[in-house]
Amino acid sequence: MLTIFNRKELIVTMDIHRQAEIRDVLAQNGINYTVKTKNLQNSGALDSQRGRIGNMGINQDYSYEYKIYVHKKDYETARGLIK
């Protein structure tokens, strides 16, 4: 079981396809992982202005950040698998 105390950040990416590939590799090799997703367009103070003007000019392909974590004991193995 992964907890905040025994996990290590494997990778941070904004590419939805890359994070899916990494998750597939980890799952195929029996490595437990968790993914934390952050919406970068939901940034507090800018939301009220963005609501008025929209998301014009913002590349939607890079609107989410994906952090993938693995157990500390699996980190080196996972790192080797995703290179």
What does this structure look like?
The chain is an alpha+beta fold. The protein has a single domain, classed as Alpha-Beta Plaits (2-Layer Sandwich). It is built from three helices and three strands, in the order βαβαβα. It has helices spanning 16-28, 46-53, 75-82, and strands at residues 7-13, 33-39, 64-71. It is globular and about 40 Å long. The mean pLDDT is 86.
Q: Short description, anyone?
A:
The protein is an alpha+beta fold and 83 residues long. It has helices at residues 16-28, 46-53, 75-82, and strands at residues 7-13, 33-39, 64-71. A three-stranded antiparallel beta sheet has the order 1-3-2, with helices on one face.
Query: What composes the largest sheet?
Result: 3 strands, antiparallel
- Averaged pLDDT, please? 86
Calculate the terminal CA-CA distance, rounded to whole Å. Answer: 24 Å
Low-confidence sequence ranges: none
Which architecture would the CATH scheme give at its second level?
Answer: 2-Layer Sandwich
Element layout with pairings:
Blueprint: E1 7-13, H1 16-28, E2 33-39, H2 46-53, E3 64-71, H3 75-82
Antiparallel strand pairs: 1-3, 2-3
List keywords for this structure.
83 residues, alpha+beta, Alpha-Beta Plaits, 3-stranded antiparallel β-sheet, 35% helix, 27% strand
